[in-house]
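Pasting two entries for a bug report.
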Amino acid sequence: MKSLTITLLTLLMSMGAWSEEDMISLNDYLKQHEEFDMNNVFYVYARCSAVNNKVYVLSKDSEKFKDTLAEPSLRMYERFYVEAGNVLMEIKGKRAKEISENLKATITGMIDEYTTMSNKLFIKTGTYFTESMTEDTSICNQVFIDTFAKDT
């Protein structure tokens, strides 16, 4: 029984346990959490870091999108990553060194989910940008403008 459980867990992880339908859109997440606490802020910042990382990775080698999409996405990925870390430090009451693995694992897991979604769409359509990625990116752009644009 133990080996069956391990096999099933391994299979689920290798398939990408989250499918596009399983990962809530940021828009739906925001609708479900109208009253925000620091945990919600951390989640949104982590998701925004992840989606911007994915957009950067998909557009950085394109001459057409290098300046207009890749560079802004890289800046937003980095800024949301730092801010997610700041929020996590506040939530946990710990220093950066103590939360760095948790932060990295959380955002990497989200990036992996966006990658799975992109790859599934590419197989079907030949494009990597899913509708939910586009919507999440739009929301994150607005969060960035509302929250950090005055700092840059």
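Entry 2 (this is the one that rendered wrong in the viewer):
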Amino acid sequence: MPSSRPHFAHADALPSIPVLLGLLLLPLLITVGLTACGGIEGTYGMTEGEDVMKDFTLTLDGGEFTLAGPNPMGGDDVEFKGTYTVDGDSISLQMAGEESEVGTVNGDRLEFESVVWTKQ
């Protein structure tokens, strides 16, 4: 009597259902994990980069960022605001009328071409 199960020529080469589910759920689990740990939001201090930025902080909150610190020319502190987006391990900072700054999220670090910010 023939089997009612479908026949696959290389059934042993197919990944198991748990493996497939794990691969499909991994991005969701990473996102939930980041959210549970506070995610990317928070305040960062500069740990690598130009000395003029050493006392600046970068704060990410709800899709908006604030870059603040002492005015290098003297006088009142300066503050710049804009928006940010995260796509996987890529982060993009955008200020009105300016080109985006794109960097990489690496654990508690935001790594850009000329500066690295570490979560405080």
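Dev reply: Rendering is fixed now. As a check, the viewer should reflect this: The longest strand covers residues 78-87.
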